[in-house]
Amino acid sequence: MERYIQLARPVRLWLRRVDRKTRDADLRIRCRVLLKVAAGESRYAVARALDCAPSTTWRIVARYEQAGEVSLFDGRAHNGTRKLDGQRVAEIEEILTHSPDHYGYPRPTWTLEVLARVIQDKLGVTLSVGYLGKVLRRLGVRRGRPRPVVACPWPKARRQRRLAQLRRLATRCPRGDVVVYADEVDIHLNPKIGTDWMLPGCQRVVVTPGKNEKRYLAGAYDPVHQRLVYVQGDRKATWLFLNLLRALRAAYGWARTIHVILDNYVIHKTALVAQLLRLLGDKIQLHFLPPYCPQANRIERLWQDLHANVTRNHRCPSMVELMRAVHRYLDHRFSRAQYYVAAA
């Protein structure tokens, strides 16, 4: 048989006041369970009304009968100091900036077990794997694919000095001059495979054409005027870059000088390029980035967006349809996207 608890009037008033003012949802549930049980409702009816398990209502009432009003509050407040404070969390983040082999473990990637052992060795704090996973989620730590990069062979001071010069050129461009970022992008008929949302038990199928075809775009991005000038070709050769320079000359006929920031790809430094630059006079000037510094070329992000919105997991059966989708995306992305058709 269920026993109903007796609450004095001051206790009932206090419980109602706590119920109204607290922001702790658990404390609010405890107050309401006691008030309803004291009003004569069964514990099962209270559980249905408050959308909780019947065992929860039994436990709340039993704890109140044993400990009184103290039972309403979270007992974990008396557990002592927390294992992880702000300094410890910062030290865990510092550990994650290195790989396990830095701490003597013969593996290049982290697991929760290895991380827990390193934290115990270095910080003297013992954490379970389950709790450590919760800590990492609170910190926003995620499992992802590393980004492969090639280190720049230049000394750090020289590289930073060159990048600073190019930033000054872009931000303090003389009146009448234009600064653009140039690069090429590969378009494959075989789709790039990337992550996508799928229903449970289902895997999305992307049909590939079997025989791959390629097209190449050479583009120049003007971030100040939000303008893109690009050309298309079936090979990434010097003539493709020459067509881009001619397209820039036609698109920016009003400009005194067109400054082109670009990487050190071989087609940008051939004798034919130097000959065309001499014929154009000082109209176009090339400014080369340090080797292997693609993050400093602002058109790289545009090509990433192109792959994400068009070529990744695409279903175009032919290169004609795929290139039509590419041009449609660029026209939508830039109100001033200009595609120049030039013969090889």
Descriptive overview:
The structure is a single chain. The protein is of the alpha/beta class and 344 residues long. It has 3 domains: 9-78, no CATH class; 86-138; 173-195 and 209-340, Ribonuclease H-like superfamily/Ribonuclease H (Nucleotidyltransferase, domain 5). 43% of the residues lie in helices and 13% in strands. It contains 12 helices and 6 strands. The chain has helices at residues 9-21, 25-38, 43-50, 54-67, 86-96, 112-123, 129-138, 156-171, 238-251, 271-279, 299-311, 319-333; strands spanning 177-188, 214-222, 227-233, 257-262, 284-288, 336-340. The protein has a 6-stranded mixed sheet with strand order 5-4-1-2-3-6, sandwiched between helices. A hairpin with a 4-residue loop joins strand 2 (214-222) and strand 3 (227-233). Helix 1 (9-21) packs antiparallel against helix 2 (25-38) and helix 3 (43-50) crosses helix 4 (54-67). The chain is elongated and about 100 Å long. The model has no long low-confidence stretch (mean pLDDT 90).
Short characterization:
By secondary structure, the protein is an alpha/beta fold.
CATH structural architecture of the largest domain: 2-Layer Sandwich
CATH class of the largest domain equals: Alpha Beta
Question: What order do the SSEs take from the amino end to the carboxyl end, as H and E?
Answer: HHHHHHHHEEEHEHEHHE
Spatial order of the strands in the main sheet? Answer: 5-4-1-2-3-6
Radius of gyration: 33 Å
Relevant CATH superfamily of the largest domain? Ribonuclease H-like superfamily/Ribonuclease H
Helix content: 40-55%
| Number of DSSP E strands | 6
Counted by DSSP, the helix tally is: 12
Which band does the percent of strand residues land in?
Answer: 5-15%
Task: Specify the overall morphology.
Answer: elongated
- Uncertain runs: none
Which sheet architecture does the biggest sheet show?
6 strands, mixed
The secondary-structure class comes to: alpha/beta
Write the CATH fold name of the largest domain: Nucleotidyltransferase, domain 5
Average pLDDT works out at 90
How many separate domains make up the residues? Answer: 3
N- to C-terminal separation? Answer: 94 Å
